[in-house]
What does this fold into?
Amino acid sequence: MKYSNNKNKTHIGALICGLSMLSLTSYKLHASDYIVPAMVNIPAGEFDMGSDKGDLEARPKHTIAMSEFRMAKYPVTVAEYRKFVEDTGFKPNTECNDIVTENWFSGPDVNEGKATWDKHQFLYSDYLPVTCMTWNEANAYADWLSEKTGTPYRLPTEQEWEYSLRANTTSQFFWGDDPNMTQACLYGNFADKSGEYHAIKDYGASYVGFLEYAKCDDGEPYGSIVGLYRPNPFGLYDMVGNISQYTSTCYYKGYQARSEQEMDNQQCEYISHRGETWHFPPQPHAARARAKRLDETGWALTGFRLAVDGHSDEVHNTTREFESKLAKAQKARLDHRPTLPEAPQNLQLVKRKNNSYTLSWQPNTTSNVTGYDVYRSLSRRSYLLGGAPLKHYEKIKTVSANKTSLKVKLPESEGSFRVVTKTSSLTSLSSEPVSILSKQFVEIPGRINMETLSSLENASLAHRPASKDKEELFYLSKFNKGYEQPMVTSTFNLNVKKSGWYILNYRGGTGEPGTFFRIWSGNRLVAEVDHDENIDDKQSDRHRVYLEKGPQQVQLSVKRYSLDFWNLVWLDLKEVG
It folds into this structure.
């Protein structure tokens, strides 16, 4: 299928009405009152938009024919938006959310944000993207700049945005497939090592067991100055990471054909915004999100960039001045930004006698290392638990930079260790754990609690402490952000009393109907377990599993494709009567 791109332009004639609603004053037509954005000529062409795998929001893949246009080289910055505010008397929104707690942006005061476009906790330079404005306020800026310059600036359509992002590439990301995320931090500001380190330090928050983070370091924990990273092949910066960006296109789940009325961006309920933020690891280029068109609150992670029809090579003097000041701001940031040291690698435990071991690690060879902190687990499960990893460990020793081994003990004969690199100003994230664990077998028939697992990939074990009215709970859980997720696998050692059929019940849930998890014995699929929110599977007795007698490893696998949060607390297996 082919579709032509519909731009849904915001007409300049609507400006006066928009300004009236925003209580803006009359314009002062002086060149110093505005900054002409740096623009990039985007060629005409066609591309495959969306995806045929992953979340339904981005389906189906379809071919779009594009006319030539220009896209802003950078998102609109605070410096540019300030001109708009000063020239018009715009009253900034005072309900923007920038509140972060241990639970990230879902704390108790999530709806009480009082941040503004020029005052929020992630802002340290006028050359960061402007955020904390609504979709209508972003359009008002475009209308104002259009009136000032005589050039009809607007928000890009969603088609233009994805076409510009992909830039004639067909790989997963415009820089390549990058399966291990080793290159991502060269091209954008994502949830990464710096993000994890500073989130733990500043808020006690962690990506571990939540969104996870790219195992690279872009040097920025939160928002970043525009243009700090490499551009895409079209020469556009910050198309991925940093902030999400409003488009002019109405949002519906999936790309089915819509009527002209449905796609009228003065009537639809939701507007699309694209490009993930510093709060997420890299996402597929088809990933989408939405915002309410008439929402009266801004978001400290959402901004915008501009587009305009046609091509032009003219460069305005205010553009040159802006890019000169931007280059100085970039250099100052890079010159003074602290560098997170690498964590120790290749930890090993060598048994000595009783519960004593020699713990060793590969040293960090950079010159500013001052020593290493060694941590021991608080329980045998510590290495599996989500949240800030060191919350589940105790520091037992600090050693000098020239020492790379230590005699240690495990009081309970089981547990794990982590090591942290120290410098005069920062520490590293914790190393990967090294552990000594005995095999735990679960007797079947019986209950398989999640904390008895022997290995876990692509998820973490969550813990709820006991309270007056609730028991202590360990459970597997995962938040899925509307795109294809890696497979979560957990392995258990079972001792099955006798061969035969067993009734399976479970405590857990998911937002998606249909297949929830699969159970494997070796390479044999022994059960495909579905979920129905209207059925209580703690006692439904509706699932069957055939197991062979004897000790064996059983693996649970969970694979999600859409926006979802799932959890699993226990499985119960009883003989068929």
Observations:
- The chain has a mean pLDDT of 91.
- The longest strand covers residues 564-575.
- The chain has six helices and 29 strands.
